[in-house]
Amino acid sequence: MTETISSFEQARPGDWLESPVAGGGPPRRGLILEVRGGPGHRRFLVRWDEEHEAIHYPEPHERLRRE
């Protein structure tokens, strides 16, 4: 079962980040490997579906999913 998480403050390793793609294609997906920073300053180490890892600062238009 997939659950949409309402706040980036609730993110944890194993959650999925979905980021819309300009032009209306399928969203970009990334697996959260680590949650860094304190409340209000969250950032994530993410392994994107293109198989690279990066530090990512969440944006309001993105979604968090827990599977």
Automatic annotation (TrEMBL):
Signal sequence bounds: none
Residue span, DUF1918 domain: 10-60
Pfam entry (one): DUF1918
Source organism superkingdom: Bacteria
Ranges for region Disordered: 1-27
InterPro entries membership: DUF1918
Membrane-traversing stretches: none
Name of the molecule in the record: DUF1918 domain-containing protein
Lineage summary: Bacteria, Bacillati, Actinomycetota, Thermoleophilia, Solirubrobacterales
